[in-house]
Amino acid sequence: MRRLLPYFLFLSTIAGPTFCDGLPAKEPVDLLVRGGTVVTMDAEFRVIDDGALAVKDGKLAAVGKSTDLTSRFEAQRTLDADGAIIMPGLINAHGHAAMSLFRGLADDRALMDWLRNYIFPAEAKFVDEAFVRAGTKLALLEMALGGTTTYVDMYYFEDAVADETAKAGLRGVLGQTLIDFPAPDFKTWDAMTAATDAYLAKWKGHRLIVPALAPHAPYTVSPEHLQEVKQLSDKHGAPILLHVAETKQEIKDVREKYQATPVVHLDKLGLLCPRLIAKHVVWATDDELLLLKKHNVGVAHCPQSNMKLASGIAPVPKMLELKLAVGLGTDGPASNNDLDMWEEIDTAAKLHKVATGDPTVLSAREALAMATIEGARAIHLAERIGSLEVGKEADFILVGSNAPHQIPLYDVYSQLAYATKASDVRTVVVAGKVIVADRRPATLDPEAIRSDAARYRDQIRTLLAK
Ligand SMILES: [Zn+2]
Predict the structure, then answer these.
(1) Distance from C-alpha of 126 to C-alpha of 448, rounded to nearest angstrom
(2) Residue 391 C-alpha to ligand 1 middle, in angstroms?
(3) In Å, how far are 45, 190, 254, 336, 365 from 369, measured between CA atoms?
(4) pLDDT band for position 23 (50/70/90)?
(5) Which domains does the chain possess?
(6) Measured between alpha carbons, how far is 383 from 345 in angstroms, rounded to an integer?
(7) Distance 119 CA to ligand 1 centre (A)
(8) Mean pLDDT over residues 30-51, rounded?
(9) How far is the CA of 152 from the centre of ligand 1 (A)?
(10) Each residue of 44-55: b (16+ CB within 10 Å) or e?
(11) Quick check: 95 and 139 in contact, CB under 8 A?
(12) Model pLDDT for residues 181-206, shown as the tens digit of each residue
């Protein structure tokens, strides 16, 4: 063997794979994470004890046993998971990130009172691009530290939201708001659509950002304008984000105005399509759910927001029975009041049990799936994210599993859905890039974000007191 070695080495220079003492050389990768329990959320729901991930060019190159991947790959950087759970990053399917600066401003009110008497006037007074950047950064910091790697946003100055999100290294489906009254960023419908057209063109094809259209709701955007939104969506292949059937009041208002429920109204206008992500869908009949399924509409279920605003309980067990794609969302921090997806998972699982009187409804695994792979389906990105599978984007988190509230471990899904807290998330990776390392944010400046939030709080409090 020793005699043949120079010959092998010579061959290796011309024949590709290198050999040393008869062993194939290791394949180079950018990152190897080993020594954790890998919860894949793939089609077989594989869980790999002492598992590992290999990452190359921001994508998953391998998912398997630590011993196997360590022998196959030579990594530029290796992370020891040290017994943590390695799982897909969480997907927040609905929110308004910059509203984090309104957190706790006017709680315990009805949605329409809250919107018309507090939020819309406060937005008219305070929301400009600088506010949106500061609020978005605060939300990004909270989401990153809690293990959310992808979020869906509807707000104003969405180009600035996209810019801050890309800089922070999170993934976002980011919708520019279109609404039938003067908004903080654009005062007329024509200005809104022109800017949205340019925004969609600017961010199309970005690795982290999916630019989207966000008409506010069927009761704040006219039928003609909703059809214009659909045309722009068709032109750019961009998702449409829309609040749908959130409250009983909305059903009443839309029925009075258009002689149809919101879902039927949207169907008539041609808005139901596989690019639509419908938020809330609390008040929908079985026939309407079938209509949503027929058009492959994704649904964002926001249990805590629906509870806090007393909007109602969405028929989620029925949606799952019909195999609708349902994700979980926090909604804006002013109606929740945080962006903690672990709480949404826990709340969703429990809310539907008490609502149906059936403790077998919405299992821990199903609830966790709604924040990962089913959430990815709901936002039409399941080809790229939502599970740990070779070829998908390397969006994953390391979750400590040794805190007193997490032990002993019998069932990993039960522990993740019912016992894990956002503060258990240790490390967060998006597209192969470490954005939180051992609870330290790598791309955001917590001190600057805190001081901006305090400054806005003082300004808002002073002006509202006048
Ligand atoms: Zn909302």
Answers:
(1) 19
(2) 32
(3) 10, 40, 33, 21, 6
(4) low
(5) 22-83 (2.30.40.10), 89-393 (3.20.20.140)
(6) 22
(7) 12
(8) 98
(9) 10
(10) eebbbeebbbbb
(11) yes
(12) 999 999 999 999 999 999 999 999 99
- Distance of CA 314 from the midpoint of ligand 1 (Å): 14
Q: Quick one: CA dihedral 246, 247, 249, 255, positive or negative?
A: positive
Q: Identify any residues that bridge with 47 across adjacent strands, giving them in sequence order.
A: 39
Residues, CB-to-ion distance under 5 Å, ligand 1 = 331
153 Cα: distance to centroid of ligand 1 (angstroms): 9
Nearest to 102 by CA among 78, 79, 82, 121: 121
* pTM given for the model: 0.94
The residue assigned the tokens 């659909």 is 230
Ligand 1 centroid to Cα of residue 216, in Å, is: 8
β-strands 19-20, 23-24 pairing: antiparallel
Tokens, residue 373: 């792979």
Strand-pairing partners, residue 397, are 87, 428
Q: 6 pLDDT exceeds 80?
A: no
CB 39 within 8 Å of CB 87: yes
d(CA 48, ligand 1 centre) in Å: 37
Which of 215-239 are b and which e, b meaning 16 or more Cβ less than 10 Å from the residue's Cβ?
Answer: bbbbbbbeeebbebbbebbeebebb
Q: What are the backbone dihedrals phi and psi of residue 431, each rounded to the nearest 5 degrees, phi first?
A: 50, 40
CA 28 – ligand 1 centroid, Å: 44
Give distance in angstroms: CA of 430 to centre of ligand 1. Answer: 25
Ligand 1 geometric centre to CA of 331 (Å)? 5
Q: At what angle do helices 158-168 and 129-145 cross, to 10 degrees?
A: 40
What separation in Å is there between the alpha carbon of 369 and the centre of ligand 1?
21
